[in-house]
Every structure is written in C-alpha cells, then in structure tokens.
C-alpha cells in the first residue's frame, strides 16, 4: 500500500511539474508578444495583460523579473539557433554558405528587433543576472563556426590553430554590424548580407592563397570529409 501511495504521489508531482513547465512556456511566449508590441522597455502590467492573467499569477511561475528575463533569453537562443544551425550545416558553394550564415543571423534580429534589444539591454531585470544570454549565443555560434573552419583547414593541410579566434572575430563583426544596421536601417538586409559575405570571403580567400590554395567560390564544398574529396587546387594550377 505504501508503494502505491508513493507511486501515486510521484505521478502527481510529475504531472504538476509538467503543468508548471507548460505554463512557464506560455508566459514566455506572451512576454515575447508583449515585447514586440510595447518595445524592450515593456513592463509586467503589459505582459500580464498579454498573458491574460494577473501579475501575482506570473510571479507564481517566475521568482522575479530577472527569472522571466532569463527564460525569455533562453527562448530567444532557441529561435536564433533554429535559423543558424541549418545555415551553418548547409552544403553548397562557400560564398553562398557564408552569405546564408550571415543572412540567417540578420533575419532573426530583423524579424524580432524589440526582442533582440530586450535581451541585449537587460533593462527589464530587477537584480544582477550571472548568466549572459548574449555572450552564450555568441559562444555557441562561434564554436560551431570554429569546428567548421577547423575541419576545412585540416582538409587543406593547413594549420587549424586559428580557427577558434577567427570564428569569434567573425561573430563579433557580424553582430556589431547587425547592431548598427538595426538602428540605422540605411540599407536592405540583402545588401548588408552581401557586403559582409564579400568581406568574409576575401579574408578566407586571402588566407587560403597564403598557403598556396585557390578555392573556387562557386564550387560546392562537402560537409563529410570522410567520403568526399575537398575541391581545391594549387595556385600554380596543379590539381590537389
């Protein structure tokens, strides 16, 4: 009998936990809608109204505003990576892949400008938060790019030691350019993607040429180095 009671208690506890998680997710989505409608300086009153509940109900599911901010930041990371991961892993010509990665990032901040500012500015928080959502996003993207760059550099028999700092430099450049563009809107997203892709491609092309490798920017590149040869040729015209 005791085991049955314990089992029933555990089942109820799991159901209640699932309910709370579902409600938290609903309130996070409501917060994102409120941020989109009212801007990054949104308040709890607007969020509660969007969620269709009172503020005390929100505070039963989030310890404070900072807890809600971190939950929204986590959801923002998921939204970003939903676009970035397919772009980074997409096969195709290197120039097109570079542009696709850049444009994927810019598309997220263009579609969610107030959410981006909400997360970056942290003005919603009511206490210091140790978790830096923006930094974590940059590190996630840079880590994925570093692996990709390292794989290709090793495939070209080049030193891959610079892959990680180069990846972080590229991420920082694109983010800073995106911040400027989001505020200025002096060109289209397509134009900015083209400009940044051109700069990144020529940096990579120069790096490869310094090692005697010429890569066709319009030639498809494989993602599986164990089954496909890497399409490259030496600058002197000899096939590698």
TrEMBL record:
GO terms for molecular function: DNA-binding transcription factor activity; transcription cis-regulatory region binding. Residues 43-62 bind DNA. Keywords: DNA-binding. Signal peptide: none annotated. It comes from the Bacteria. PANTHER family: HTH-TYPE TRANSCRIPTIONAL REGULATOR RUTR, TRANSCRIPTIONAL REGULATORY PROTEIN (PROBABLY ASNC-FAMILY)-RELATED. This is AcrR family transcriptional regulator. It comes from Saccharothrix tamanrassetensis.
């Amino acid at each position: 009998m005791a085991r049955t009671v314990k089992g029933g208690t555990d089942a109820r506890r799991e159901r209640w936990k699932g309910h709370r998680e579902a409600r938290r997710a609903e309130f996070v989505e409501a917060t994102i809608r409120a941020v989109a409608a009212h801007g990054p300086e949104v308040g709890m009153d607007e969020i509660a109204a969007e969620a269709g509940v009172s503020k005390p109900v929100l505070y039963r599911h989030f310890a404070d505003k900072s807890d809600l901010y971190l939950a929204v930041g986590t959801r923002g990371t998921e939204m970003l990576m939903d676009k970035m991961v397919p772009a980074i892993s997409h096969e195709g010509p290197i120039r097109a892949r570079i542009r696709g990665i850049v444009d994927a990032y810019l598309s997220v901040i263009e579609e969610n400008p107030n959410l981006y500012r909400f997360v970056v500015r942290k003005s919603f928080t009511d206490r210091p938060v140790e978790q830096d959502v923006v930094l974590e996003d940059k590190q996630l993207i840079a880590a994925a790019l570093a692996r990709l760059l390292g794989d290709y550099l090793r495939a070209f028999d080049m030193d891959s030691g610079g892959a990680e700092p180069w990846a972080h430099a590229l991420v920082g450049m694109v983010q800073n350019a995106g911040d400027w563009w989001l505020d200025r809107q002096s060109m289209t997203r397509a134009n900015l993607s083209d400009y940044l892709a051109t700069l990144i491609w020529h940096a990579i092309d120069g790096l490869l040429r310094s090692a005697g490798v010429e890569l066709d920017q319009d030639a498809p590149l494989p993602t599986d180095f164990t089954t496909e040869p890497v399409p490259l040729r030496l600058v002197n015209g000899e096939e590698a």
